Amino acid sequence: MSDGASRVSRAGLRVSPGFVNEVLTKPGTGERAVASEMHDPATPDEATGRRPALGIIAGGGKLPGLVAAAARAAGREVFVVALEGYAEPAVLAPFPHAPARIGAAGRILQLLHAAACRDLVLVGPVRRPSLLDLRPDAEGARILARIGRAAFAGDDGLLAAVVRVLAEEGFRVLGAHEILTEAVGPRGQLSRLPPDAQAMSDIERGIAVARALGAADVGQACVVQQGIVLSVEAAEGTDAMLARSRALARPGPGGVLVKLVKPGQDRRADLPTIGPETVRAAAAAGLRGIAFEAEGTLLTDRAAMIATADGAGLFLLGIDPTQPLQGDTR
After folding, report:
1. What pTM, to 2 d.p., does this model score?
2. Which stretch of 64-78, 185-199, 229-243, 314-328 has the lowest confidence by average pLDDT?
3. Which domains are present in the chain?
4. Other C-beta atoms within 10 Å of 26: how many?
């Protein structure tokens, strides 16, 4: 996980006449304002008979744009709700989108319904706000009441409750990996350099630690060097954990980053994600490689990741944490 950055700017939407008529004939709903803040560079053709638009609730990073591009390439219209303070305008510029505060649940649902979305994807990192920062609107307050104690649980518990509530609202929540199939990390060695025996031992130790972390719904990753756990991921995210690990490194062979799906995690939200930036951060921390859960991790740019790892002399290894590691290297 890493932080999103800038706020999303407002722009106007070019929509089909049928959509405009539908919006303008609903006085008192506020949908006129919603339509005026949408931006659509390519108006959909109502006569195409295509499936309903895919709704994307976008946090930070490049993944929301990659999901939108993959859905569009598969013939689906998309509509993106850009979470203010997290979603990146440059990433979402080519796609229909509108901004919303994370606590403005009423506006988010209104936008998705106005865009005729039925399927949803939640993608991109979002740092959990405090209740004071959340400032929920009336619908948000009702949803918080429906979520109940899960609002104060770990990320996985909260996201599972959010997915449940969205399903109750009539949406089908999909995982980003179901749309962005080519980004799912495979099992085996991706880099030129393989891990040595010490690194494999550290990976085994990291698997045990990461699974314990995940079972407690704390984090997805840890750094292990020569059998010593240097750091574990919590609310700060992977990049900050790696930066912290640099000061804790021991003399001798560098450590490894291990990143796994939490045991029992709903894979429709917050799958482990790594990219070239992760590789650069691992290299800066003095690590020798990264082990990630195969078929459970999204790689934001596989070719660039491999090139960056090879250039820095790091290994990249997709593992099945339930199986012996010997079969994971080529």
Report:
1. 0.77
2. 314-328
3. 17-179 (3.40.50.20), 184-328 (3.40.140.80)
4. 12
